[in-house]
Amino acid sequence: MKSILFWLIPIALSAAPADDSFMIKGATVHTMAGAEMQNGSVIVRNGKIIGVGKNLAVPKDLKVIDGKGMHVYPGMVDAATEVGLIEVNSVRESLDTTEIGKYNPQLVALTAVNPSSEHIPVTRYSGITTVATMPEGQVIGGQISLMHLDGWTTDEMGIKPRAGLQMRMPVIAAGGRGGFVASDSSDGGGGGAFGRPSFAEAKRNYDKELAELSEFFESARRYKQAKDAKPAGFKPDLKLEAMIPIIEGKEPVMVTAVKEREIREAIAFSDKQKIKIILCDAGEANKVTKEIKEHNIPVILGPVLELPSSEDAAYDSPFTVAADLHKAGILFSLGSLRGKTNVDSRNLPFQAGQAVAFGLPPEEAMKAITKNAADIWGVGDQIGTIEEGKWADLMVTDGNPLEAQTNIRQLFIKGKPVDLSNKQRDLYEKYLNRP
Amino acid sequence: MKRFGIACLLGAALSAAGWGADTPVLIQNATILTVTNGIVKGSILLQDGKIAAIGDKVLAPPGAKIIDGAGKYVMPGIIDCHSHIMAEAINEGSVSVSSMVGIDDVLNPEDIAIYRALAGGVTTANILHGSANSIGGKTVVTKMRWGRNAEEMKFEGAIPGVKFALGENPKRAGSAQGGGFGAAPANLRYPATRMGVEDVIREAFNDARAYKASWAAYNAKVARKEVAIPPARDLKLDTLVEVLDGKRFVHAHCYRQDEILMLIHVADDYGFKIRTFQHVLEGYKVAKEIAAHGAGASTFADWWAYKIEANDAIPYNAAIMMKKGVLVSLNSDDAELMRHLDKEAAKTVKYGGLTETEALSLITINPAKQLAIDKRVGSLEVGKDADVLLYDAHPLSNFSKVEKVWIDGHEYFDRQDDLDGRPKKAIEKKALTDKAAPAAGGRGAQPAPQSLPQEGLRK
């Protein structure tokens, strides 16, 4: 019975004319900007939230959605993922994350997002309304794009196409998840386990990589100087041009740094280069909380459901990092990153749920994947909470979205009801009814 | 036989030293999710390696350790029907029929993944050969008896299996574009298509049938006291004859509906049964046929689109197959996923509307039935092995975690002990790394090498 009801609601909604003005009345509203509100209402007009509170008068011209027994949350934000850039992991033609070359700051993820990707409606089904989708590279992969998971075109989806630069700290050895190994493969004399170079050689290569990276930033500075001098016939360099907001500290660099040493080196690098950074996939950030806090650096953690980074690490070490960061007062969020087998953005709330099991307060977990993500990406004035003036990215649920058993009953992006059907549900209905 | 004898001796020696000699444990005031007999608010007694009593009130035997389970949940140990932990080798990828090799020969009881799986509530796992071959190696059922040796990991008396694999993986080595198994274009391996995979399996059973007949003829001659020359022993075909005789289970890796039907037809033609279809992500399309064959299905909760044959995978797969009469379980195939099969099971309530008990059955009694070990494990029933989990909240809640794990009534995991032991381990580690560090170089401080990536060999 429950499941039948569950199917009917979205169908009925999608049949209604698209309307981005309405009122949700009598629900438990979790604004993420303050305490939860029992019997609260949210008023939306032209896609924006214009009222939140108790006992709000019902505007005459607005459709009213009965929120009795329901919960309203801001739509969730996946702070780092590859939704839209990957369709089927093993099919090269369907991958658009990784360009050739080490330094590609001029590339923009949104350019390659496929608005028809099946991953978009599948991800939405979990209540995720916005993602930061990212390119990947050996060192600098390109610009991360913040986008809504709804829209006819990438133009309509985009919130902030150049939200930050994706960068990966060079590492000395291939430890942890997906670290780029600073190694000269042409040398061949490295030896070591699995063809890895010796420590001394890896260190030499690392120093070389870091020097090259520093030189790239320096050349961006020289480029800016040259450009500012306005010489006649100046020819722009697209790579270095893209670095200007970075070296000016106007746009952040999201630095992937997993291990403690890499995190410390990333912080030192940001100091030296005077750039604004966000730490990404920082699995050992809890070992560097003092420095991260002092530098006021936000952290985007990778999936909580991960294996410990080394054989002798505590079994629950990936589960407790979020709670540690919260205790240290560090602004953090979660990103599904590439996912274990493929894009796994839809499980973002359950990743957050696992952190709750291991000490993170539930409301902080929810904040991490709504408000914090929006704040980290500099769009906290537009999305991330239920407050007046923000886009009406809302989910109506029958329980806590961090629990797998909870259903998203209705989803709104910019106030527009979003179709919750997807390929997987279509196949479900089709084959459930196979005679 | 010889090995069995040694195992018995070891077992005997160990029981004197602690096997089966555990203090009885009585958990009181808990919510007991039996899976097969509803939910009991009360007590459960673990004694002599077995579940001795379940009820509102259970008297504590003398010397019993009493645990207050107020607000806590008890459920049977999780059973993973598809794992590769402990295995030192996964694929004998040089030939497409490798039924002469066995995972039981390469178990590493010191794999840290065992402890991590335990901490996620897994007590039993079916350890399989990889999916590089149409007919892979022999499989073995194990218990996560962390700290015991390889022989003691094995689930005594469990019917062994053999891994089959269909679709993209076994045909990969036949592709000139190369694949995960190291075949150079000049060294292509048959098969390269799903047609070839079927043929490889048919050829193998064609051989096995003839081989079996040659032994039958020989044995008949011997029985008649005639002069007889025994056929040459073929270790590869011996395994397949066991399949034909119903003494060994077939666990078949598959994705697409066509290959599932293909294998059912091959099995019907040669007169054997497929015990489980593994992964079986399009099982929902042919649930009726799988049920009619009597095969089980062991799948993922929501993995999809990581390769073409997984593109039609849906998280409703388990629910549809279950509703259509298939015995379904959820497996991990992965040391990480293995740590949260409980949370994977919870997703089937959302995707497909299973009840909580049905969801729990996917990781307990159903895989136990698939492996024919359900008389011993898979539910909380008096007389069954005391493979029991204690949770701090409902196991299907993402906010819950495992606090204690017993196998055969012996406590193998205790979260508090793990937490308490960490400072001591840190000191021990520091002492060891200091000792290993050469005075000048400090190389000893290097991080330990990561285990080999196994991506692409499995799934």
Protein architecture, described:
The complex is a heterodimer of chains A (435) and B (459). Chain A is globular, with a radius of gyration of 23 Å. With 435 residues, chain A is an alpha/beta fold. The model of chain A is unreliable at 1-18 and 174-194 (pLDDT under 50). Chain A is built from twelve helices and 16 strands. Helices cover 32% and strands 20% of the residues of chain B. Chain B has two domains: 1-77 and 379-413, Urease, subunit C, domain 1 (Roll), CATH 2.30.40; 78-377, TIM Barrel (Alpha-Beta Barrel), CATH 3.20.20.140. The longest helix of chain B is centred in the middle third of the chain and has 30 residues, at 194-223. In chain B, strands 1, 2, 3, 4, 5, 14, 15 and 16 form an eight-stranded mixed beta sheet that branches. Chain B has an eight-stranded mixed beta sheet with strand order 6-7-8-9-10-11-12-13. By secondary structure, chain B is an alpha/beta fold.
Briefly, what is this?
Chain A has twelve helices and 16 strands. Chain A has helices spanning 2-15, 119-124, 154-157, 199-228, 238-247, 260-273, 289-295, 317-327, 348-357, 362-368, 371-376, 423-432; strands at residues 22-29, 37-45, 48-54, 63-66, 71-74, 76-81, 128-133, 140-148, 158-168, 253-256, 277-280, 299-301, 332-334, 394-397, 408-413, 416-417. Chain A is globular, with a radius of gyration of 23 Å.
